[in-house]
Amino acid sequence: SLNVKAPSKKASSLLLQMGWRLDWLKHKLTGKRRRLSKQLVHTLNSKSVYDNTKLKTQLNYQFKPLEKSIKEVAGIFLKEH
User: Fold this and answer.
1) Is residue 26 part of a domain?
2) What integer pLDDT is reported at residue 1 of this predicted model?
3) Widest CA span in the chain
4) What local confidence, expressed as pLDDT, does residue 33 receive?
5) Cα angle value 13/22/31 (rounded, 5°)
6) What secondary structure, in 3-state letters, does 11-47 show?
7) Are the C-beta atoms of 2 and 73 separated by less than 8 Å?
8) Which of 3, 32, 20 is closest to 11 using CA atoms?
9) If you count DSSP H runs as helices and E runs as strands, how many of each does the chain have, helices first?
10) Left (φ > 0), alpha (ψ -120 to 50) or beta: where does 25 sit?
11) Is the dihedral of CA 77, 10, 16, 49 positive or negative?
12) Which end of the chain is more exposed for a tag (fewer CB within 10 A), N or C?
């Protein structure tokens, strides 16, 4: 959708753990803004499952397909950037 090739390698948990520590050190040495935090790595390594059945039933609501939403948002992003 953004005309960018998808990543071909998965970042392992170990790599992410080392990454946030190196990012912290870089931040301390250079004062640059952090890009990878311990909390973000935790989130990246976790899996959350949600069930929207009750919402769809109670409110008679139908969600837009994920692929369609991604294409729409990517299109807006590309127009603005």
Assistant:
1) yes
2) 72
3) 54
4) 97
5) 140
6) CCHHHHHHHHHHHHHHHHHHCCCCCCCHHHHHHHHCC
7) no
8) 20
9) 4, 0
10) alpha
11) positive
12) C
Domain count, the chain: 1
**Does residue 8 belong to any structural domain of this protein?**
no
Burial class (CB in 10 A: 0-12, 13-18, 19+), 4: exposed
Q: Evaluate whether residue 4 is within a structural domain.
A: no
> Helix 38-45 and helix 13-30: axis angle, to 10°?
160
**Backbone φ and ψ of 3, nearest 5°:** 60, 40
Structural domain of 39: 13-80
Write out the two tokens for 79.
């127009």
